[in-house]
Design brief:
Keywords: Membrane, Transmembrane, Transmembrane helix. About 75% of the residues lie in helices and about 0% in strands. By secondary structure, it is mainly α.
Length: about 90
């Protein structure tokens, strides 16, 4: 009986372990930071103060985009919730 239950839940547990491993790897990558001058070569020519300003601007823009995406997903969720009569 125990082996049957283990065989039943093993794919789910394996999937959760894979997701946990992937997220821990992503945390290591994002913790290192991103050097913008590696991707946009003309920023490397600028002074470090200007590079910091452009990095801050791009970080702020990406944060605003993430907020807009979260808001649109939440609005979609609310429209689905209101669309289902038995909710």
């Amino acid at each position: 009986m125990i082996t049957f239950i283990n065989n039943l839940f093993n794919p789910v547990l394996q999937l959760l372990n894979d997701v946990l491993h992937f997220l821990s790897h992503m945390a290591n990558v994002t913790g290192a930071g991103i050097n913008i001058s590696d991707y946009i070569s003309w920023i490397g020519v600028l002074d470090p103060a200007w590079q910091g300003d452009i990095d801050a601007l791009l970080s702020g823009l990406s944060f605003i985009v993430i907020l807009f995406l979260a808001r649109s997903i939440y609005r979609f969720y609310l429209s689905l919730k209101n669309g289902i009569e038995w909710w």
